[in-house]
Amino acid sequence: MKIVANILLGALSLTFSSISIAEETAKSKYVLSINLVKHCATEYGFRKLGSGWIDTKTEYKTFNYIKEENELNYSQKDVSLVQDCVQEQLPIIIYGYGWTKLSKAELNIKKKEMDELYNSFEYSQNTIIDKSKKFKFELTNVVPPKRAEICADKKGKFDYGFDEYAFCMGTKVHQSPTCQNQYGDPCGTKYDKGRAGYTIKES
User: Fold this and answer.
1) Measured between alpha carbons, how far is 49 from 45 in angstroms, rounded to an integer?
2) Which of 44, 103, 125, 198 has the greatest number of CB atoms lying within 10 Å of its CB?
3) At what angle do helices 77-95 and 29-43 cross, to 10 degrees?
4) What are the start-end ranges of the E strands in 56-186?
């Protein structure tokens, strides 16, 4: 009875999109984990890279998912959310929404399928593995380098007296001469005198 209650609670929280993916994956157990992980990964901002490759050492077909975030939005929890999503969707894929109409014998069969499916999936820090189908899904958060890391090699370097590190970091937005005369022009500027006043002398 407890498992039925858990299934019902899980079903209530499913979105329309997850319902459709459940119906689609239920048609073919072979693509179940591929479609399920794709749905959950996309839901949390991951995108799939390529069509998968075979790891000859383990004979697993590996699918890579990547999420690019800036350093302010990065969270390792993103991978955990995808893994939780996969686990929450498994019961509805097996039992469907007509589970209340199933006989005791049918429920027992479904429970056996559910146990097999749960045991087939394995989760680690950045992966989801379907052992029965030999599928491995790698989820990677990529944090772009911080500005300080990009600009690090410019520390202590000066170009014509200007601090390259400060300009790279954005603390200086424009270059101005280090020496100015009383008119605000670079030191050593020469002028021509005319009717309109003084103009900068062409060199």
Assistant:
1) 13
2) 44
3) 140
4) 60-68, 121-123, 127-130, 135-142, 158-159, 162-163
Q: Which of these, 97, 117, 106, lies nearest to 32 by C-alpha position?
A: 117
Residue pair 36/89 in contact by the 8 Å Cβ criterion:
yes
Beta carbons within 10 angstroms of residue 134's beta carbon: 14
pLDDT in tens, 129-168: 999 899 999 998 776 667 777 788 888 887 766 677 777 7
Given a contact cutoff of 8 angstroms between Cβ atoms, the answer to whether 94 and 113 are in contact is yes
Separation CA 69–CA 50 (nearest Å): 20
Tell me: pLDDT of 37 over 90: yes
Hey, is 48 helix, strand or coil? strand
Structure tokens at 29: 């157990």
- Read off the pLDDT band of 11 (50, 70, 90): very low
The 10 Å CB-count burial string (b at 16+, else e) for 157-194 is eeeeeebbbebbeeeeeeeeeeeeeeeeeeeeeeeeee
